[in-house]
Amino acid sequence: MNEIFVAAHHYQDESIIREADLVADSYRLAVEAAQSDARFIIVCGVRFMAESVATLARPDQTVIHPVADAGCPMADMITREQAERAMERIAAATGKEAAPLTYMNSSNAIKALTGARCGSICTSGNAHKIMKSFLNGERSIFFMPDRNLGMNTARELGVPASETCIITAADLDSARQLPPARVYLWDGFCPVHRIFSPADIEAARNEYPGITVTVHPECDPEVVVAADSSASTEGMFREIDESSWGSVWGIGTEMHFVERMKKRYSNKKIIALHRSCCHDMVKIRSEHLDRIQAEIRANPDGPIQGTIHIDDEERDNARAALLRMVELTNA
């Protein structure tokens, strides 16, 4: 039995990746890290990732996040109070409470609200399947916090723009009534992926004729339309891994992942459409990881700095939303 399990997101620096027992996207981090037999799980990613692992972990496991202020700007773009008020506005417009469909990149408080209202979490990799299952129901969908992933997924599923509605924080204090819609989208975004533009793709195609362009679905819809495909980080990894020798790829996602793909697949040409860095991810450095491991080994029964603590009710509701995601993904 390993006493310490290190789980790292794909966007981490190479110095962290080298020490990790698991390198994965947010879905696999949440599900697989909590399934380890380790007593201590160190999550090298932003805070919501550590919260998700802690929500699914066993009571005898301790989940640690190395840097407290390594958060996610997107997750901070909606509070539980705002989500509740938005759902009230949707109910007034449609006559029914909406089904909350919440992106993994959200706070545990939002995940808990989702579980309490019989909704589900999703990731960029399974959003299509999970949104489709909710579209088959009678309730409208309230997708939060990323409007781009919600909009891109709804479009793929054939939902016309006329049946979607974006809700902003200002709308919550407005007298304007929301129109009826099938999919409501909170106006949040990822700063890392919002930076990409169709011009980046055009420039790559001009420089490398025949290039295959894949972008993250957190990118703006016009960027996704201009690309050859959109995929989660895990999906991009598979696409590149399964591609032919000598193929040329333009990647629209976080630069640490792109740089690692360049090194791993030296027999392929891989370029970043634009250098975009997650400044919160890089707050976690190897010295933080070393410090925590030394602290655990020196005093495993003592309080460990960075331990994630979650209220029991919040844990139960967030867990229900996460497990519903797993159930729908595996259906």
Polypeptide structure, described:
The protein has 331 residues and is of the alpha/beta class. The protein has helices spanning 14-17, 26-34, 47-56, 80-94, 108-116, 127-135, 147-156, 191-194, 198-207, 221-226, 233-242, 255-264, 286-298, 312-330; strands spanning 4-9, 22-24, 40-44, 62-64, 99-103, 120-122, 141-144, 164-167, 183-186, 212-215, 229-230, 248-252, 269-272. The chain is built from 14 helices and 13 strands. Strand 10 (212-215), helix 10 and strand 11 form a beta-alpha-beta unit. It starts with a strand and ends with a helix. The model has no long low-confidence stretch (mean pLDDT 95).
Key descriptive features of the protein:
3 domains; five-stranded parallel β-sheet; 14 helices; globular; 331 residues; Rossmann fold; four-stranded parallel β-sheet; 42% helix; alpha/beta
Task: For the record, give the distance between the C-alpha atoms at the N and C termini, rounded to a whole number.
Answer: 31 Å
Can you list the strand order of the major beta sheet?
6-5-7-9-8
Query: Mean of the pLDDT scores?
Result: 95
Number of helices: 14
What share of residues is helical? 40-55%
Specify the overall morphology.
Answer: globular
Order of helices and strands: EHEHEHEHEHEHEHEEHHEHEHEHEHH
